[in-house]
Amino acid sequence: MSKAKSSGKHIIALLLALITLLSVIPIMPVSAETLSDGKAQTVTIKLNETHYILETVGGTKLQGQSWTYTSDTGIQGPAYCINWGLAKPSETKKITITGKYTTTPQTIGAFANGYPQRSLEDFISINKADNPLIANLTREEYVAATQAAVWTTLGQLRIEGTQWDSGRDTLLVPTDDPSAIRAYEALKIILYNASFWTKPLNAGMHIRLGRTEAGNVLNIEDANGLIGAEQNGMYGIEKETIGGVEYYTRTFVASSATSTYKNNYSINLYLANAPTGTIVTNLDNEQLVSWTASGKTYWTVPTPDHTLTNMNENGSEYAGDFKVCIPVRNTPKSGNITFQANATITQFNIYFANNQTDTEQSFIIADPMYAPMSCTGTMKWDTVTSPYGRLVVNKVDGMGNPLQGAIFKLTGSNGKTYEGTSDSTGQIVWEYLDPTISYTLSETQAPAGYIKAEDVTVNVLEGTTTTVSVKNLSERTLRIRKVDAQNGNPLLGASFRIEQTDGSYKTDLYTGHNGCIELQGDALPYGTYKAYELKAPVGYEKSNDVQTFKWDGKSDITLTFENVRTPSFVLIKKDKDTNIPLEDVSFKVYRDGRLVTTVTTNSAGYAYV
Length: 609
Hints:
Blueprint: H1 8-18, E1 42-55, E2 61-71, E3 76-81, E4 95-100, H2 105-113, H3 120-127, H4 139-153, E5 157-158, E6 169-170, H5 178-194, E7 205-208, E8 217-221, H6 225-231, E9 238-242, E10 245-256, E11 266-272, E12 279-281, E13 290-293, E14 296-302, E15 306-308, E16 316-327, E17 335-346, E18 350-354, E19 363-366, E20 370-382, E21 389-397, E22 407-412, E23 417-421, E24 427-433, E25 438-445, E26 456-459, E27 465-472, E28 477-484, E29 495-500, E30 506-510, E31 516-520, E32 527-535, E33 546-551, E34 557-563, E35 570-572, E36 586-591, E37 594-600, E38 606-608
Parallel strand pairs: 5-6, 8-20, 21-27, 28-34
Antiparallel strand pairs: 1-2, 1-4, 2-3, 3-19, 4-18, 7-10, 9-10, 10-16, 11-14, 11-17, 12-16, 13-14, 15-16, 17-20, 18-19, 21-24, 22-23, 22-25, 25-26, 28-31, 29-30, 29-32, 32-33, 35-38, 36-37
Helix pairs in contact: 2-4, 2-5, 4-5
């Protein structure tokens, strides 16, 4: 990068500056089917274009390709091939979607920061101040840069002067071709931004009771309703005068786990069943911007800051505080306000389309970069007085999204037990609990794909609702990586045995196009294991490395095995005038006058002997 002083924070600052150029008209998200819905099972892949702009130090032009996938449910989106040089599959071939791609987070970062996930216009606007060479970047150059970035993060290309210092070949630093110079500069920018990706980022949106207070339901029970709650200093209810009017107020948080950039860095909020005169303000008691659509009044909750948090697995969020203000003069004895929030958010859902044919490309495919998301919350109050306690359990995933189908058992210290299953809002409600004893909340069955949560001790109070949020983390992954010892390139077709140390269980598996074997949760029975290679990929010597590990499904484990190449040589075939690689050219290899083998060049113009 021409100005390496760029940083993640500076890029975010530039994005924030762009908001002043955006329309103040609120954006209403429109729902659309996505891969994350889980309905699509297979895709077909179409090659859109190939551009020969960048080249290797050996003088071979690199294919800059863009692809489009079409799912069996009709979804279309961008795709990138992950194996430089392999043949493209037939456009009618159905390739199986095997799940989210999580193997190399920096590859996800390259996809997210390149074409077409980030538009050419946005890419130039965000980066040209620090990198003026890209001011005239073309779409074709951007395509070439993105494909090269994907291959680089997978260990297939070496880029001088960067952390990407290994690969099958080294990319030439262009000096006299303006188009190649722009593409190379864009490549370095994409890789720089991708370097900050240490884990996949998931989308999620929710209303919370506070910055560090989980749960989206505030249930107030007091003999005098909101009046009593305020007088007793309970539930966070305060009485404040705003613009000469007295209000009962309570602060909440609207949050998105990923950027709300396309929603003007804000979340849209609607209050259903709010008493007449209810307003929404910021923490300084200034009314938020409001607008009307379809007869409903929406409030714009600003979410400009990218802040750290422990409330989701990403470790960060775009969040905004808002204060619900109910006029004292119009406050009923009981009420039930439903918060409905929505926004267009950024998502980084990358999936793996695994081609079972070893000689053909596999692909990473993506949902649209921007998608609608919504969530709800509740504030209700009543004048009920009860000698019993009430417990509300909110079941959420690592992003704070509600989870349905979790089964819990609540056991009192008196031995009495209750059972419940989380509903579509992620809630279980138990009434008429004894406030004089303690309870243990145990998850007996987690939703599919999640790890059971630890037990929680709960105490309830007389006449009060106690809310407990229980988080389920997604099942952890055992990942075995097979790489070239020389350049770190992932290797297809290595056979491994995973065997319990007492010999009670074993399984044999093969590395895929991403060079990995991946098992999640109890797909591998819990225990202590050893892993070792049975057969090396073609052209490599078998590794004698044996690695042991303990698998309990609670944390990710990655084992890396290296293979040393067997002695060989590479034939490169290219057009002598254009340096464009020539595919499907066959060579006969002789030794001492006898035919040894016949090899054929791949799409990169390489043939291996």
